[in-house]
Amino acid sequence: MSRTRPATWLVALPMLLLALATIYPLLFTANVAMKTRRDYVLDRFALADTLRGQNLTTAWTSVGMGRYLLNSLIVVTASVLLLLLFGSMAGFALSRLRFRGSTVLYLACLAGLFVPFQVIMVPLARIMADTGLIDTYPGLILVYVAQFLPFTVFLMTSYYRTIPQEVIDAARIDGSSVYGVYRRIMIPLGAPALLSVGILNALFCWNDVLMSLVMMPSAEHRTLMVGVTSLRGQYSADIPTFASGVLIAALPVLVVYLFLQRQIADGVAAGSTKG
């Protein structure tokens, strides 16, 4: 027992320090958001004496964080739903259906993982401008789907390959079509992987700045992270208002993690131990 305790502390102590390093910036931001400009200038590290919501109200209404949040919710929700639909269908086809060129197609999807957005940014922006998709929701949604679809296809293909072939053969013997196997077998069994990849894609799209900045140049259609980035220049002298905008951007992700942390862990465990 005495040998296991030091070994446990050797693991627990770095994890504790890492947790504190992760939580402290959020607590510091929340504390600054509750201060006035005068209080922040006098002592930026002191605790706020009272809980003030004025800075949050200013960031939500005057700065436009409410509009930016709505834009992000629309774009991220549509993008994740399309990614899950196309990614699960492609993963099923590439893992279980045998057709000419399937291996080449799968390798092409893997190659897409190594193409950064910066390489295709200029020609993509010109194509989107020529088709009238710049500064529109569908344009940014298509860019997100194209950028993160290879990652989704890779994960779903890897997961679907772990499902026993006997389950699919039994469904085909019972008279299920290919679509029936996908809808009745692959979707329910792939739910843990779909949840995990959906959350990851939602975080990728939510935290994106570059793609949204290129595709949504107008202030009306800015996403939340682009709006937070713009606050650095507009409110560089009003740090509490800037901190309020950062806090508004961080809270949705924090809430999602708090409510879905069990599902995230279960999805990752299922994907690593299945079969």
UniProtKB/TrEMBL annotation:
Its main location: membrane. The keyword Secreted does not apply. PROSITE patterns: ABC_TM1. It is a multi-pass membrane protein. It holds the Pfam family BPD_transp_1. It comes from the Bacteria. The chain crosses the membrane at residues 68-92, 104-125, 137-156, 193-219, 239-260. Residues 69-260 form the ABC transmembrane type-1 domain. Keywords: Cell membrane, Membrane, Sugar transport, Transmembrane, Transmembrane helix, Transport. It is found in: Cell membrane. GO terms for cellular component: plasma membrane. The keyword Translocase does not apply. GO terms for biological process: transmembrane transport. Belongs to the binding-protein-dependent transport system permease family. This is Multiple sugar transport system permease protein. It comes from Actinoplanes italicus.
